[in-house]
Input
Amino acid sequence: MAKIRHNNILDTVIDVMTNAKDSGAMHLYAEGDSFNGRHIKIKGKELFHFGTTGYLGLEQDERLKQGAIKAIEAYGTQFPLSKSYVSHPLYAELESLLSELYGSSIVITKNSTLGHFGVIPSVVNDGDGVILDHQVHWSVQSAVNPLKLRSVPVEMIRHNNLEMLEDKIKKLQSRCNKIWYMADGMYSMYGDYAPIEELMVLLNKYPQLHIYFDDVHGMSWKGKNGSGYVMSILKKLPDRVILFGTLSKTFGASGAVMVCNDKKIHQRIKNFGGPLTFSVQLEPASVGAAIASAKIHLSDEIYTMQEELLDRITYFNDCLNATDLPLITHNDSPVFYIGAGAPETGFNLVTRLMKAGYYVNTGIFPAVPVKNTGLRITVSRNNEKEEIKALVDAIVENFPKALEETHTTLERVNFAFGKTRKSQTVSNSSNSEVSIKIYNSITEINPELWNATVGRNSFYDWNGLKDLEKVFSLNELTEHNYKFYYFVVKDENDKCILATFFSYGLWKEDMLAPRSVSVKLEKARESNPYFHTTSCLCMGSMITEGEHLYLCQEKPNWVEAFNLLLEQLEEIEKKLQPQYLILRDFEPNDDAIKTYLHNKGFIQVAMPESAVYSAFNWNDQSEYLNNLSKSSRKHFRKDIGAFSSKLEVSVKQRLNEYELQKCYELYLAVKQNNLGLNTFNYPYTFFQHMNESLQWEFILIHLKDYEMHLAGVMFGYKNSNRIYTPAVVGMDYKFSKEFNIYRQLLYQTVMRAHQLGNIRIDFGLTAGFEKRKIGAKVLEKCAYIQTRDNFAMEALDWLRND
Output
């Protein structure tokens, strides 16, 4: 029944990147006639460069430049021939040097991305399985994705979670020949490391386990001969480990290198490695520069360079440790990440630092969770201590200014990254002319105020919420218990600017995932009922539908009001620790809201389409039909009118216990058949409440030719503002297609609402095509989501394509 438009995360990435570009923090152009590695010129201003991945500065080494120049002069700008046929004259020397550098067999690739696309599908066989660290580089994940077409199982674990990794290994043991775990050696955003020694313990414990490391960011500045972070721990590469290093970034040239000790794998990749076989090989300049760099790596000079870099890294750490700046990971890597929290704070700080004379990178979604935006600062040998200290001083000076200008605090930034250190910084909101009040029950709020704002919609008027609070508390199952929070923001004249309510409870993570994902998860939930479920703090609730936010956007202080709401939600998050914070039922094309919430660290996702009916300008069925389109009238005659004599329709205020139980069974049938919108079942106590409430009623359809068999029921709520809400539906699927039961129920809902003198029907989510046929207006809606990390979203995305 549910026709759901699934979310394209690329749209959100583009929106976030666009905001970053508009703020002046990204998509910039370097200027100038030359580079020295220490400075970079942007928009006419010379900046100290703290954004490079050339940590040793080898890209500016005269020996590499001369190696590239001589190679071009001798062999031209490129060698346009597949390496499978003939290798460039310099390739043999480079391969020999790199084999010596690693002490293992190597294969040179055009770059690491093409390398992964060539190696991974070749080494992972059809009977194997793959486990990914959820922060492993995008290029590795992309190369793994095609394996699903070969029915290779792919699992994902939380970042560096060894307990979860071992559980996945055990899960795959019985059905996989080899199990490949894929991770980065050093992670490029936070500068943290894979737990190499612990992974070797697992490697020795499980003979099926093989490990695939992408260590391109650990290259050169660490390890014997600059062989990288992974090799600095391993010393010698085990037979069941494949390693990727780079010839670009810190190495100073271009290209990448696969390293392994398994002779069969080495020959397999060398003989046929997909894009490695058919792509044009490295340009002569790249090979010439790489040879020069490899010779430096094989000399004692590399250790002097590493020590010089480590001295700068240590100094930067010392400078940062003397501040309250939120450094996310403390280690000895050249990558430092200072948290900013919301994107707008990160963008503000980056642009401030550029004005102060320093360039740093912006850490941004999807590389990090959207509310974990920050400064990604890299230190190289080109940076001198005086500018390192000056950069720290500039951040210390500008950080509180960025916080104040974006209405946040250091405490809130720390909370976004799971840190508990408190700050004395306070928000400006306390001096505002608007004020917020928080309530734990609807009974604490004036019914007239509520029903004139939020309560104008659906069945969450004052009375409806009072009853929901009772129904969804003190239940046996966790998923049937909600905590409710109500918010009202008023201006200095006591006028309401914003009103809304939130509920806290357990959700299925696949609620809006494709049906195929939910089918797999429901199978797993037969033995583990709470598999892939999590706690959510959500605007509205799981059971309510429609507009849950009253917001006067025509008021100039609506942003201030929204800021107050987000601050209070964060205080609740600190206590409850939900995985998701969800704001829902917004217009997708409301650019003001979209920009505001993206800058606050929320991701926009599409919701199932909703529908309303308000065209009650008719007196009888004939006039009602005349209001429909020509095609809808045709559908009515064929799918609804043709069966009217075979059905008996009744409306009941109260059912006997047998009838209520049958209606509940029909609801469960719809629920089990509708995994496109996968939620927990509502408790039977909710339906008992409906039966006792004067605001609920039941539209029933019985089949005359089948001994008055009950084939469908619509559970309708009569809102105090003359809004009719068909909130829940039940059907017998043995008869649903033959008699078009769902359309019959929709039509009877329209008739019943008209009979009651209602002004609108809130039809709720999904099945927009069906609702449009009876005259409803279909509306696109979106939600804005903030999550503690990207793991659940990425894990479900792998299931979607499995």
